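Progress note, sequence design subtask.
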């Protein structure tokens, strides 16, 4: 019945959002399910068990009765033990730090955990649903530890004699003798080693290099590099499947005695490699897991499980909130369907008896409470119905690539390349506050005055702009915080690296230096907005956004040491004035980040910028978008993701509050349509443009900043 309700009621409502006065907000839906800030719906199959923040890996206990789940989010790390028969968490054990690595020693009840920024491996004894801390194996002396020391995946050699540990930022594999607890060797490998997979003979092991897009094979004894295979962007999980694949009766036997299946999270694909009798490894090719033929990147395949009894692969698709099911009996797997699970799944395990356990990093709507979806064989059976639900939960459709639905006469084209009077886009991204904290008292019907942190005298330009132009009061940021929010703001996604690392920074366990464009593994599937613009032949100017991103340097205005929001704003104004005086062409895309000053300085900088743009020669063909990338507060009575956003332009509907449901990628989609750019991921491709905020006839009255800034 609940599935019928989605199809019959919610889908027409989604289509009519921008045409009806009814206000649709992020959060629980009538009859069940949750509407996310991404505009996707989460309605997981099976039974849901809540664990702690951002669970990211799992392991089955040796007796198959318990699922051990590693929680590595903003809360202090822990390990949850889930009783599979009773379907509930029975214990939660703290860990000093943890990240990805979780493995039982062969034929043992001892559990080993990669210790993240503590650069150690933690050993636990497990019995009857309870973990007891045992030894700690340091990989680096604590006094000598730096931010490069970070322990991730852990894997035992098949004989259980040695423990191998991926050192994520050292680009190396540490080898530990678990008897003595000592580090005995360290081997160099590819950049950002993610997963360690041993050949069953124990003579070699494979590494997925997150940053290099390669699979490396090393000798287990010496660490010597045997092969390096180019695969695809961001390879992550790997699983070994022994035995020859089936062939049709009239075909020769497969030359492969085993296969390795690999997820590549910056693609929509599952990849495989064949292992020959001579122990050579050959790339076999991809299997597309996308929802439709033209779907841009965004499925984010990131984890795997193999069901030998049915020759089925289960592939976690993190940014589709689903698990793909593939028949892998033959050499090339065939996608069979999809199973709806929780928000941002991270791990999957095949359970004794044929069921499935899926770990969901953000559960059903919160980065602070992950879940485990437990599915019995009966829950898995209606795969066709499950697949329909996954499609219904997604707002994406290929038709949106051809018609974004802005309607006739709107300044925003329905398709990139169509004419528009708006030629210059100013995109201001702020680190800041939730909606109620800024505008809680501005419109009490849609805000909570009790949560307002600022008066109009504190942020006079925010309030004046909201009155004179367009305030979006049902706008949601896609990111959980500023670290991943910045990526969402410029890439229409946060890559798997960002999703899995920023919680450690938000929890104070790692520095905030991996999300500003300098980290190679954080790179998004289709690059950033400025790559899209430059490739289309547009001029770009950047002020203070992601200044360490190498390809953006040529377009970034040089700042003096100690630059503030005010000095950054003045630099933009000075260059804009210079363009006016010389008649030089103004940039088509200007990006600016206000994130280094106090709120009052930020407000003054914003007012100064908008006033300068509105008095420049390009004002009749300009638009200014102002959004919040994310912040630590999130105090809002609707959702912690709701944030203030502004649209300023001669073509903006003056003195309007637009209550249409929008989000960060809605702004990106609008910018892309205005500048003739293609979507970067399935998120911005599916996003609703800000059409209701614009009018066909311009009003070029300039803006006068509050506070006497001119």
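Output:
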């Amino acid at each position: 019945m609940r599935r019928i309700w989605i199809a019959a009621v919610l889908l027409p409502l989604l289509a009519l959002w921008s045409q009806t006065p009814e206000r649709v907000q992020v959060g629980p839906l009538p009859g069940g399910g949750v509407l996310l800030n991404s505009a996707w719906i989460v309605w997981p199959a099976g039974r849901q068990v809540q664990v702690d923040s951002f669970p990211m890996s799992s392991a089955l206990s040796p007796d198959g009765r318990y699922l051990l789940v590693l929680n590595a989010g903003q809360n202090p790390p822990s390990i949850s033990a889930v009783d599979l028969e009773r379907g509930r968490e029975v214990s939660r054990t703290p860990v000093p730090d943890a990240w990805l690595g979780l493995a039982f020693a062969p034929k043992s009840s001892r559990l080993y955990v990669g210790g993240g920024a503590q650069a150690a491996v933690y050993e636990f004894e497990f019995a009857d649903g309870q973990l007891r801390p045992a030894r700690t194996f340091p990989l680096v002396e604590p006094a000598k530890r730096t931010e490069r020391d970070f322990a991730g995946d852990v894997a035992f050699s098949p004989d259980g004699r040695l423990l191998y540990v991926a050192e994520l930022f050292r680009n190396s594999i540490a080898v530990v003798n678990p008897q003595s607890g000592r580090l005995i060797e360290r081997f160099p490998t590819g950049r950002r080693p993610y997963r360690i997979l041993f050949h069953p003979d124990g003579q070699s092991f494979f590494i997925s290099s997150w940053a290099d897009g390669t699979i490396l094979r090393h000798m287990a004894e010496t660490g010597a590099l045997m092969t390096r295979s180019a695969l695809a962007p961001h390879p992550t999980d790997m699983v070994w499947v022994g035995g020859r694949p089936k062939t049709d009766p009239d075909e020769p036997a497969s030359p492969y005695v085993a296969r390795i299946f690999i997820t590549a999270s910056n693609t929509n694909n599952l990849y495989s490699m064949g292992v020959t009798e001579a122990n050579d490894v050959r790339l076999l090719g991809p299997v597309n897991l996308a929802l439709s033929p033209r779907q841009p990147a965004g499925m984010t395949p990131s984890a795997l499980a193999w069901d030998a009894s049915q020759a089925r692969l289960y592939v976690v698709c993190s940014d589709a909130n689903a698990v793909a099911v593939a028949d892998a009996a033959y050499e090339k797997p065939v996608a069979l369907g999809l199973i709806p699970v929780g928000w941002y799944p991270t791990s999957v395990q095949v359970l004794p008896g044929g069921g499935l356990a899926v770990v969901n990093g953000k559960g059903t709507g919160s980065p602070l409470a992950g879940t485990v979806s437990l599915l019995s064989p009966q829950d898995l059976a209606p795969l066709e119905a499950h697949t329909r639900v996954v499609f219904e939960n997604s707002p994406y459709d290929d038709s949106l690539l051809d018609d974004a639905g802005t309607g006739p006469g709107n300044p925003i084209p329905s398709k990139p390349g169509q004419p528009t009077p708006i030629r210059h886009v100013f995109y201001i991204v702020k680190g800041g506050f939730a909606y109620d904290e800024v505008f809680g008292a501005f419109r009490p019907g849609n805000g909570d005055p009790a949560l307002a942190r600022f008066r109009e005298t504190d942020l006079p330009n925010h309030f004046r702009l909201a009155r004179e132009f367009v305030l979006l009061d049902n706008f949601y940021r896609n990111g959980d915080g500023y670290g991943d929010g910045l990526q969402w703001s410029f890439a229409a996604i946060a890559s798997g690296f960002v999703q899995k690392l920023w919680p450690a920074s938000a929890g104070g366990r790692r520095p905030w230096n991996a999300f500003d464009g300098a980290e190679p593994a954080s790179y998004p599937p289709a690059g950033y907005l400025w790559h899209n613009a430059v490739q289309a032949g547009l001029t770009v100017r950047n002020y203070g956004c992601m200044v360490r991103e190498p390809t953006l340097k040529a377009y970034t205005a040089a700042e003096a040491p100690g630059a503030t929001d005010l000095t950054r704003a003045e630099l933009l104004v000075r260059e804009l004035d210079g363009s006016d005086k010389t008649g030089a062409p103004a940039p088509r895309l200007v990006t600016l980040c206000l994130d280094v000053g106090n709120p009052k300085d930020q407000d003054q900088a914003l007012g100064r910028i908008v006033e300068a743009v509105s008095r420049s020669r390009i004002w009749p063909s300009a638009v200014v978008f102002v959004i919040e990338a994310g912040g630590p507060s999130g105090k809002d009575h609707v959702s912690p993701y709701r944030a203030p956003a502004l649209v300023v332009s001669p073509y903006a509907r003056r003195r309007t509050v637009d209550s249409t449901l929008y989000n960060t990628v809605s702004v990106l989609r609008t910018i892309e349509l205005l500048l003739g750019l293609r979507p970067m991921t399935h998120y911005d491709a599916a996003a609703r443009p800000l059409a209701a905020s614009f009018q066909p006839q311009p009003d070029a009255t300039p803006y006068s900043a509050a506070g006497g800034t001119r």
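The longest strand covers residues 130-138. Work on this subtask will continue into the next period as scheduled.
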